[in-house]
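Explain this one:

_____
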Amino acid sequence: MEFKVDENLPVEVAALLRQVGYDVVTVFDQNLEGSSDPEIASVCQEEGRALITLDIDFADIRAYPPAQFSGLIVLRLHRQDKPHVLEVIERLIPLLSREPLECLLWIVEETRLRIRG
């Protein structure tokens, strides 16, 4: 599974995913910081990468139909400080190998995961 980590997340998210064997690039790695949501979405589609982001605009399935993506993971967290985000990602990692992500939207909250097609 391949991922792109959005610029609104700590770069350590990419490091956590790489540690468990995933192919991960960040928006910063590709000099895409400041790009519009549609531009980021297009690059993810071209590369076949699932996007991980805090940007709730990507949870709008009319604008970003999950079937057109390798996966969308939107974190909807009450706290968005680095330690908390990394803790949530650490809890999410085991699910990546057990649950399908292709063509799906995962909305990740502190205590639950909602999956939409």
